Amino acid sequence: MVRIDLGPRENPALAEQTLAGSKATLEITPTLVVGLGGTGMRVLSLFKQRMLSLCGPDAPIAYLGIDTDGEEGLPGAPLNRDEFALCECVQAPAVVRNLDSYPAVKEWWHLDMDPGVIHKGAKMKRAVGRLACFYNYREEIRWRLDNQIKRLQRLERPSVSVPFEVRKRSLRVYVVGSLSGGTGGGFFFDVAMAVRDAISRAIGPSVNPIVVGVIVLPRGFISLMPLEFMRHKVQANFYAGLKEIEYLSTHYAEFKLTLEQLPFQVEKPPFDTVYLLDTLNQEGKNIESTDRLHSMIASEMCVEVYSSITGHVESVLVNMEDETAKVLHGKRCFYGSFATAALVIPGHKVLDYCVLEYAREKLTDSILDAKPGNVRAEDEVNNLLTNMNVLRRDEEYLTQSLKEAATAGKTTSVLETIPASKAKDVPRIARTEWGKLEDRKRGLEAARAALEASEELTKNKLIGEIRAYFERQLSAQGGRCGLDFLIRVARNLQSRLDQLADEVYKRAGQLPDANAALKAAKDAYRNSQKASGKRFPWSGDSGQIVRYEDFAQNCNNWSEVVLNGVSLEVARKTLLALREEVRLIKRGFKEMAAQVNQACQTLKSAAVRMKESVEGAASKYDYVLVESVLGPEDFEPIYQELRQKAKLPAIDVHLIPKDGTLTSWASLYVSNLQTLLNEQLFPAIETAFAPLVSQMDILTAAQKYSDIPVKQWVKRAIEQCSPFCNFDPVKVPGGYYHETYVGVPNAQERRYQDAVGDVKPAKIVSTGNSNEILIHTLMTALPAFAVTGLAQYRQMYEYMSAQAKRDPQLHVHLDRRWAATDALPDLFPDGK
User: Is the peptide bond before 761 cis (omega within 30 degrees of 0)?
Assistant: First the structure.
């Protein structure tokens, strides 16, 4: 089946994506995003897709995914080879049996724990995930990390025209993942410190990166766990991981990190701030799925990195970085959360729909339905057979052409008459003519042998001409006929060859008996040898001439019967062979057409799913995370409108395989069709439609396609856009940082200001994205113990830690020295 790989919509024409009004040039903060484990990889993929769409490939944004499982099934943009480190470790059992050879692992590994083979994930074992990343650091992680930092340095000074300004002397790092799993929970703070070290080595002290941890809480995973102990484990893992991060935020100087067998000095905490994200927000509202939470996280990170609030966020994070930042009950207040809501034109879905629909149209029009003008299939068949010398003046001519070719230069007949003056020479002349006819090299027998021998050559030559004809019709040189038309041609050609073969067979059945003709010729020859004279007084000169003419008539009749019989037989066999070849070609074309039809159906189904997957209903006012101003019914008219405006290039869509013969094309067609879609059609169509989709204005679309009053939606969204981590404000009597932003395409344009209305105390900012209005709420400067539900996670942590004393496979801490529940300070003040 055709693979439809609709990857990232990289902006092909940034200059065309400016807004209709004055251009909003936004700041972008050079940023490295590290996605750990399954959660981090999904967020990273969505973030990359969104940033490519907004800024194109030349933005100073770098991506690094690290996982012990593969990268298949990512929801957004795929990662390049130097952006994904696969950290499997099938040698893990051997490593722990020889820990003296791995001192960096030996100093923290739980000596009673069996890691097993680390393949397809770390099975919720944090220490196992950490072992895999330590083992693979040099070969898989470090060089990719260094390359991504070099990419940031290179793109800080874009060499092409870009719709953003790069913030100078700024560098942001987001480490995204979940502490509940094995890979994300196993390498979370290690990778943060490794990134700080790599940046220091590459850039030096001139740039001080702000490192932000983005952690998804266990609530969204609990319902996915089929077994109770697994539900307990994800909660215990989270609490253990948060304890470690809390400890290292103040005791980092006591920590020694060894990677690649070389320890390096930890000079700062792993994170300057940590965002905690739950599926339950401050108002008690749930996100329906972790997928939507991942999408929200990716959107929020985009706003922080690329919008007019990036400077505000920078100030907040710098304050959080200050070691004199707020401390409450001896605990650092460096946690926070956020929420986003958006009223959107689902640009990616609209673009995908346009690509799928136009690709389907192109396949249908160019490969299935195309035909050269008003030519009929019957006329094509007649022209083809005439050009092949199978027909002449619409009559079967193959038999005659075969006979003419075989008899050329050979004696296949005798003189029909001789002058009366040669009457006395009749016996001699007859002997001479008979001798020529029987000459094995140049006579009748030679002609018959030549006819029989020509069968294979004639068949191969004509089959080659038929194949060449169909190849031309599928190519640009032949006018690119559609498969449906060629199937009709092949069907008519097969029928006509059948008819001609039947006619030849009937004609062969009407020929005189060759043996009787031979006997008559021999009798006439013998009679011609009787000379006139006294013994045959009745035979004068006139009688001799009569005997010769009888001889000539019978000889030529015999020769004609022989040659016609052989010619008709060879012609019939050739026609039947051509019919069989055409049958195979027709079958191949039908298979090819079926594959194209299947591809078209797949494209159609994907397009239908695309428009039906629009989140939110156009008539719905209640707050949802992302609400579309478009309904499924709006996609087709939008496509038709954009199709008229799109500068669609001429796309060559013939699918002649490079290898193999025409009759083997069907087996090659699938892969060629995939290549056509993925490497030619999709990119070309995206290039044409992407600028038009990016210029679709949210206000115009809201007015044209929905009855959503923008001002009312913004008001309700601000009221209900509450950070997605439930905190208890009573536990933070001194208050915390809280800010809400309303992002519009261009905050300087009056029409956007009027559309959203008075949003104070929220601030209106520019996002540069004409497809949406975005609400962003940021909350920081909170202690971990203010998180609602943390006590339950601690209960699971204490329970699992006790179980680990009996079952070493249940260890939740990374370092065996931290295994005891009191080895690290508790997240609650005084353990309460």
Answer: yes
Smallest Cα–Cα separation from 696: which of 614, 770, 773, 753? 770
Helix, strand and coil content of the chain, in percent to the nearest 5, comes to 55, 10, 30
Q: Which two tokens mark 759?
A: 């949003």
240-to-10, 125, 257, 798, 801 alpha-carbon distances in Å: 40, 12, 19, 9, 9
789: left (phi over 0), alpha (psi -120 to 50) or beta: left
User: Six-digit token pair at 365?
Assistant: 């029009």
Report pLDDT digits (tens) over 431-479.
Answer: 999 999 989 899 999 999 999 999 999 999 999 999 888 877 776 544 5
Q: Residue 533 is encoded by which pair of tokens? A: 């004279």
Q: How many Cα atoms sit within 13 Å of 678 on the Cβ side?
A: 11
Largest CA distance in the chain: 155
Q: Which of 683, 771, 698 is nearest to 10 (CA)?
A: 683
Residue with tokens 């019967």, as numbered in its chain: 561
Averaged over 197-201, what is the pLDDT? 89
Sign of CA pseudo-dihedral 283, 285, 290, 296: negative
Q: Which residues contact 464 (CB under 8 A, 6 or more apart)?
A: none
**Tokens 């933070």 sit on residue:** 732
Look up residue 449 and give its DSSP letter. H
| pTM to 2 decimal places | 0.66
Asked if residues 713 and 343 have their Cβ atoms less than 8 Å apart, the reply is: yes
Answer whether 725's CB lies under 8 Å from 787's CB.
yes
Residue 26, SS3 per DSSP? strand
- Give 87-132 pLDDT, tens digit per residue: 999 999 999 999 999 988 998 999 999 999 998 888 899 999 999 9
CB-based contacts of 166, cutoff 8 Å, min separation 6:
27, 28, 30, 60, 156, 157, 158
The one-letter amino acid at 144: R
Measured distance CA(309)–CA(450) in Å, rounded: 90
* Model confidence at 320: pLDDT above 70: no
Cα 437 to Cα 44: distance, rounded to the nearest angstrom: 89
Q: Is the pLDDT confidence value at 658 over 70?
A: no
Q: What is the pLDDT of residue 303?
A: 82
Cβ–Cβ < 8 Å for 800, 812: yes
Return the pLDDT at 14: 27
- What b/e sequence results for 132-142 when a residue is b if at least 16 CB atoms lie within 10 Å of its CB, and e otherwise? bbbbbbeebbb
Give the helix/strand (H/E) hosting 197: helix 183-203
Is residue 55 within 8 Å of residue 165, measured between CB atoms? no
Residue 545, token pair as written in the block: 């001439």
The CA distance from 143 to 141, in Å, is: 6
Q: Looking at residue 394, what DSSP letter applies?
A: T
Phi-psi domain of 723 (left: phi exceeds 0; alpha: psi -120 through 50; beta: other): beta
What is the C-alpha separation between 19 and 279, in angstroms, rounded?
A: 35
Question: Which parts of 421-482 fold into alpha helices (H)?
Answer: 426-438, 444-474
Output the CA–CA distances (angstroms, integers) from residue 46 to 53, 309, 745, in the order listed. Answer: 11, 21, 20
Where do we find the tokens 């990359």? 48
Torsion of CA 540, 544, 545, 550, to 10 degrees: 140
